[in-house]
Amino acid sequence: MLKVAVTGCAGRMGQEISRLVLDHPGMELAGGTVHAQHPLLGSPLLSLLGKGNAGPKIAASLKDIIGAIDVVIDFTAPSASLEHFNIVADAGKAIVVGTTGFSPEQKKQMESRANAVKCVTAPNMSVGVNVMFNLLAQAAKTLKGYDIEIMEIHHNLKKDAPSGTAMRLAEICARETGRDLAKTGVYGREGIVGERKPDEIAVMSLRMGDVVGEHTVYFGGNGERVEITHKATSRKNFAAGAVRAAEWLPHQKNGFYDMQDVLGLK
Description:
The protein has 266 residues and is of the alpha/beta class. It has helices spanning 12-23, 45-48, 78-91, 104-111, 127-142, 164-177, 181-184, 236-248, 259-262; strands at 2-7, 27-33, 71-74, 94-97, 118-121, 147-154, 185-186, 201-207, 213-221, 224-232, 255-257. The strands form two sheets. Strands 2-1-3-4-5-11 form a six-stranded parallel β-sheet, with helices on both faces. A five-stranded mixed β-sheet has the order 7-8-6-9-10. The chain starts with a strand and ends with a helix.
C-alpha cells in the first residue's frame, strides 16, 4: 500500500484528494496537515471525511509525519508548498505539487533540488486540460498568422491571476510560434492602446461566483475563428489527476515531471 499524505487536507481540494486516496485500493491515507491555528488540528483525519474517528491525527507540520509517508500531495499556497517541498526533499521522498503562483525565485529554489526528490508539478492536473495542451501545440504551429487571445475564468476566491493553466497555454503558444512571451505577452487592456500587434499573445482573467475553471484559446484569422476550450465543472477531475500522478511517481527516478509525463503524452 502506498502511504499518502495530503497537505491542506481540510481545504476544498484537500478534501477531494483525501476522499479519492481513501477509496483507492492501492493507497493508504496515512497523514494530513493544516495550519497551526486551524480548528481541526489534532482531530482524526477520517472524521474530516465523515468516516469515523480512527486513523492518524491531523498534524500542523509535514515534518511530524514525513517518516511514515511515501508520497505527499500538495495543493496549498506557494510559500507553504515550497516549505513542504523542502521537507520532502530532505527526506528523499516524493511529492505531487498542484499549487500555482510560484515566483521565478521559488521555482529556481525547487529546481535546484531536483536530484534529491521525485516531483510532479503541473499548473493543472486535469487529464482533459493536458490533452488540451497537446491539441494547442498542434493548432499554434499550424495556424500561422492568426491572432492569439486567451481567456480564463475562475471563482471569486482565487488569489493569483492569470491562472497557472492560462500561463502554460500562453507559453505553449509562444514556443510553437517562436515568440518570447516576456516581450509579447499582454495582460489586460485599457485606454487608447492602439492596434493589436501581430505577435501579441493576450491573456485575460475573469473572476466570478463559484466557477471551478474555464480556459479558452482563440485563434482569430480573416473570415474564421478557431476556439479550443476546457471547462471544469468539478474539482474531482483535478483531484483524480493528482492521485494518478501520486500512484505513478514513486516508480520514477529522482527529478521533475509534469502531467504530460504521467499520461504518456510526450
